[in-house]
Design brief:
Largest sheet: 3 strands, antiparallel
Bound molecules: zinc ion
Helix content: 25-40%
Number of helices: 1
Strand order of the largest sheet: 1-2-3
Distance between the termini: 15 Å
Strand content: 25-35%
Number of strands: 3
Length: about 70
């Protein structure tokens, strides 16, 4: 993940949220995002973040930060 300014991050964040909302309207709702007000550790990089995404593989489920989430 390349370094980006906070401003770029926030702009990207709102675009991602818009896309997610549209996708949710078309497909079944999936609880992919987890909000932890006090912050929680990313399972991948170990960074403490409030917002994490559910990453499910064959038999495991991890909560990772936005930078570690493999966007499709
Ligand atoms: Zn991470």
């Amino acid at each position: 993940m390349e370094n980006r300014s906070l401003n770029e991050f926030l702009n990207d964040e709102s675009r991602a949220t818009d896309t997610e909302t549209q996708n949710t309207a078309v497909t079944a709702a999936r609880p992919t995002m987890v909000w932890t007000p006090d912050g929680a550790v990313c399972a991948d990089c170990g960074e403490t973040v409030q917002r994490r995404w559910r990453e499910t593989t064959d038999d495991t489920e991890r909560l990772v930060c936005r930078a570690c989430k493999p966007w499709e």
